[in-house]
Amino acid sequence: MSSTIIEEVAKLSKLEKIELAKYLLDEVAKYEFEDDFELSEEQKEELDQRWEEIENGTTELATVEEISKKLKEKYGIVVSFP
Question: pTM for the whole thing?
Fold first, then answer.
């Protein structure tokens, strides 16, 4: 990556950087990466445990509204979810 790009990104406001990050993640999500990375056994176990907690109702889930409110309170950013 060129230093010019990094310098330009450094000049962006926090909100512009967040918007750029979202754009880049959306761009990356267009590609299939099934073989590009491997979860560790520990990560797989954690995901399995969390999924089991969701399935059997032993964990509390947050609504989109709750998540949005917490992000706004903690980081001062407003996020909209589809």
Answer: 0.42
Cα(50)–Cα(59) distance, integer angstroms: 8
CA 4 to chain centre: 26
Contact 68, 81 (CB under 8 A): yes
Tokens of 48: 């399995």
> Among all chains, which residue has been given the structure tokens 């590009």?
36
Q: Residue 77 in contact with residue 71, Cβ under 8 Å?
A: yes
pLDDT tens for 39-56 read 899 999 999 999 999 999
What's the pLDDT score for residue 55?
92
Where along the chain do its domains lie?
A: 3-75
Radius of gyration, CA atoms only, the chain: 18
